[in-house]
Structure formats: C-alpha cells, structure tokens
Amino acid sequence: MDLVIYNSLTRQKEAFVPRVPGKVSMYLCGPTVYNRFHIGNARAFVVGDSMRRILEYLGYEVQYVQNFTDVEDKIIKRAKALGITESGLAEQEIANYFADAKRLGIRPADVHPRVTEHIKDITEYIELLIAGGYAYEAQGDVYFAVEKYAEYGKLSNQKLDELVVGSRVEPGDAKRFAADFALWKGAKPSEPSWESPWGRGRPGWHIECSAMVRSILGGHIDIHAGGMDLLFPHHENERAQGEALCEGEPYVKYWLHIAFLVINNAKMSKSAGNFYTAAELLEKYDGKVLRFFLQSAHYRSPLSFDMGLLDSAASGLGRLENAVLALWQAKEFIPKAQAVLTLDFAGYEDKFRAALADDFNTAEAWAVLFDLVKEVNIALARQTLGGRDAAEAEAFLLRLGHVLGVDLASATFLEQHIDELIAKRQSARANKDYQAADRHRAELLNMGIILEDTPQGVRWKKQ
What we know:
The chain is an alpha/beta fold. The chain folds into three domains: 4-304, HUPs (Rossmann fold); 307-412, Anticodon-binding domain of a subclass of class I aminoacyl-tRNA synthetases (Four Helix Bundle (Hemerythrin (Met), subunit A), Up-down Bundle); 415-462, no CATH class. Helices cover 44% and strands 15% of the residues. It is built from 14 helices and 15 strands. The chain has helices at 39-57, 73-82, 86-103, 119-131, 205-217, 231-244, 278-282, 287-294, 307-333, 345-357, 362-382, 387-403, 416-430, 434-446, and strands at 4-7, 12-15, 23-28, 61-66, 135-138, 141-144, 181-186, 201-203, 221-227, 252-258, 261-263, 266-267, 303-304, 449-454, 457-462. The strands form five sheets. The protein has a four-stranded parallel sheet, sandwiched between helices. A four-stranded antiparallel sheet has the order 5-6-7-8. Helix 6 links the parallel strand 9 (221-227) and strand 10. The longest helix is centred in the C-terminal third of the chain and has 27 residues, at 307-333. The radius of gyration is 27 Å and the shape is elongated.
C-alpha cells in the first residue's frame, strides 16, 4: 500500500518516493528551550513521533532528527530573570523536555542536535553562502539576500514585494533589502557570543536548522516537518538557504506542516498567555490520554482544546483499554479450541494501514480500532467469541496501539493486588462470608475497578 502525503510546497497530496529506496531522512523542528513546552507544542512533537512510527510500520528505515534551539532571545531573557546562565537554563529545560516527552510516549530522536554544538558548521555554511553571492556582511551582521533566490516566497505562497517591513519581516538599518534576514548577529554586551570571520556574535534563527540538516543528514532530506507557525518566515528562509547550496537537488522533498491547537478560537501560544504546559496537564491526565487526544484529528486540521475534550478522550481510551482487558480475561474462560465467531483481522489491518498511508491519518486509524472493539464487545456479550479469537484480538489491539505509540494494556489493571483482592472475595463468597466479600468488592471499587459476575467467572474493568 503506497504512502501519499500532503506537500506544503506543492499544496497537494503526492505519492511518497524517498531519495533512497526503503530509507527516510526526516527532520522536525524542536523546541526553544527556555520553558516547559505547552500542549500546543506537544501536538507537533507527538505528530512528528507518530509519523516516524508510521513510516517504520510501513516498512521504512527512518533516520529521525529533532533539534534543540539552546541560544535565543527568550532564553537570554529568562536566564537573566532567574539569575542563572543561559547554558544552565537550557540544560534544565532539555531535561524537562525529555521527562515530559517520555510520558507522552515520544521516543528520543536518533539525533538531538543543539545549536551551540554546531557553531562551526553554521559559520562555515554562512561563508559558503557569502562565496556564492547569496549573503553579505553589514556592520558585523551577516544577511541573506532574498532577491538572489528566485523562488523566495514559493513555500509560504507569498510575493516578495508584498512583504511589509516590521510586520512580516524584521527591520534592520544595515540591510540592503527589507526582507533580507540575519544569518549572523554581532555580539551585544552580556549576551552569549562566539568567534567568527565577522567578529564575535551568534547565529540567526533560520540558519541553525539548515546547518544542522547539512551536518547530520547531508543537506538533502526527504521530510521536513514542523508547526504551521513555522511556515513563514522560518521554513521559507530555511528553504532559501538550503536550496542555495543544493546544486539543483531539492533541499527538502516534502514539507509537512502541523495545524494549531486552538482554545477559544485562538491559537494556543505562550505569548498570548492562553496555554497549558504539558507538565501541568500530566498532573491530572495520563500521558497516553493526552497523546490519544492529540491524534484524534488529522494533523493538518486545527484541533480544539478544553478540559471536557480531554475527559472525553480519557473515556474513549478507556473503552479500548477495557476491551483489551475483557479479551485478556475471556481467553482464560473460553476454550481455545472454541471458535464460534472468527474476526477478520486481515481486513481490519488493511483499513488501519490504508488510513495511515493516506497522509498519516491517525484519527481514521483509531476509528478502525473502535470498529473492531465494537464487534468484540458484541461477541463477548453474546458469548460467541472463541478463545483463540480473544487471544488474537488482544494481541492485535496491543500491536496496532503500539504503532500509534499508545499502550492499550494499562499497567494498573494487571497489578497483582487486584488479582489478590478478587481471589479473597471469591474465597469469602465460597465460605459464605458475604460481609468480607462485599468489603473486598468495595476496596476494588475504590481503586476504580468494577466486578462483573458472569457464568464464565468474574470479570472486571476500569470504572
């Protein structure tokens, strides 16, 4: 089944053909590490991780890179406010990123480059741009000359002569043209700086990703992904830099952009103050509930956020977990040789794979699993599900949940303590000690576990 993806550059779906058959190089713009990332940022990180997992599921070998921007104005400002060094703040927030990402089921990238580790690569890249006539020095700064790149504005679908100084581009007295952007910024007092051919200074934002792509992935990649807010100016400028040194071969074959998380009809952002950090939400919700919620709409569609929707996501995920639990229990009660109903696992997987191959449609993939669970629950209620099917359905749901990065076998429902309490209740009932049996049932209920006495034995599920 062939993968098709929406390319922001061409603004249409295209058959995915990697540069090297069977292998995918992918770069995701990572966080600027000055604070904990919010749930809007988390959408981009979860989607990037999901794309990587899906590509692997479809049979590709993936080299996945996600950077850390560890020198930037926001980092400098917050470090001063906290009375710590910029590098100390960056280390703290990178550690926080990995802690929060792990709880969201986000696997570490193959490489997590930091800007400060690639200063030499950045200055060498800038020298090549100057030598090629694409950049110029001005009073200790270095700028990219956008007029030298004929396709500037093609990615974001903007015309160069319509860009407004101070609105969509940064003003600068030393620029030759208003839309030119900084590759290197001359040093300012009390700010981090490094030696360069143009004096001490630090990189501009856009050159950082281009240099790291060139250093780690060779300068030509299959997929570049990031939030929709990065389309302009970051990715437009990055593409201009990358294409300038690519000698006719595309810098990026497929540009993918992830839509905003919206709250009260506005983009969630730190600058607007309408945000929740992932860490805050993880205090109330399991990480896989947040991940499931962030996958509940197609990545190119805006996703509305409120606590009620997170509660609904928790309920929906609970239905899947309870189905896995019921199947785990059913295979113990139903003889494995019995096969009254045979489930079409191949058919369900075909639909699941087709959804993911259609531009990474996780929402539709989850819908396929819910369809299976509906059939499973009906069969369990009618006692028509064979033990072999129960075991296969449990394994099937766990495996495809793993493709999406969500473990559908909640650790809590298999804890030994639950089994011990159920055993004690059964023993009390056998001895006609109904008071003790009710007490054990109440203990389980307090843990969120509901018991069901069936002809096949005791079953339980999460409340």
